[in-house]
Amino acid sequence: AGEAQGPCALKMLPLLERCGRTACRWRGRRASAILDVRPSLPRWGASPAIRLHLLRRAGPLGIDGPRAAALGLGGTVAAATLLQDWRLTACEAEPEARPLEGRADPYGGVILDPALLPLDAADFERRLDHSLRTWRSGGVRGVWLQIPLGKAHLIGTAVDRGFIFHHAEKHYCMLTHWLPTDVPSPLPPNASTQVGVGALVVNGDGKVLLVQEAVGPTRGKDIWKIPTGLLNAREDIKDGAVRECREETGVEADFEKVIAFRHAHHAMFGKSDLFFICLLRTKETAPTFKLQEAEIAKAKWANFDDFLQQAPYPRDTPVWAEIYSRCVGEDGVVGNVPGIRTEQLLQSERPNSGLNYIYY
Q1: Average pLDDT over residues 316-344
Q2: Could you tell me which residues are beta bridge partners of residue 112?
Q3: Which of 21, 46, 148, 223 can pair with 75 through a Cys bridge, CB separation 3.0 to 4.6 Å?
């Protein structure tokens, strides 16, 4: 290109311009090609057409005033080559990356806003790198990064930069990154314990509600049990027991108290398990069953003493035999025992602070 003469040089300019811009786009950065023009030997001649063409290119190519003026000095123009050999160079004009957006937590960390994460992987990478430099220099400690399912392609980039998995739900994955290198991470782990409830439902005749499972470990074994299940997210113990009874059998009952609970450490995926036996009452003698057929095969009202003698469960399982025996009072009446009752209170004096149940 440096040796091009006259019209040949004129044809080279669009090509060089396109090459420079294409290379910059390939690197994912904004750029503008700038001509380094200076007086030189009259190899390109004094053609007015060439000077006019270069002047028209001056604006789009980002040539400043003095350099553009140099195009007409002495009627000569010298075009350098790209990089070291050419004097036509691609000068990058990359804007400063914006940090990822979020809010500070009370412990000197950052919780990023998943809705504001960029969808483009290259943009996310650039902004995450910039953010990590900014956070480290600013003394930020822990970073919480929630990536929605629709942006799951960003997870690999975060992991490559030191983020680790914390937990996952149906619609997102949560990752964390502890930035200090001289202090062990105190970030809390994922929830360690699942919470289950059992509904010990007593009717007006003093009989208890029992079911047989259509699925699960007791399916097909002719074993009767009380309705049970896990709490949903943000569900209170008393409400979960009432819900499980209604869902599995269609029976509406009122929570009275927690009679006992068991704490174990052999639940699925290495979790611990809390299981609460809740006493519920229904005023009806024999309410109509509406079974949850996907989970429950049969339901009945039975004498609790007969249930206690069922083998191998609960009679031959020490934990369950002890728990259920404590549900019967000294007078032989089911539920006539001390228990844990509830009271609903505000979280704080602030409006809309939310209601909490306390158990005592």
Answers
A1: 94
A2: 102
A3: 46
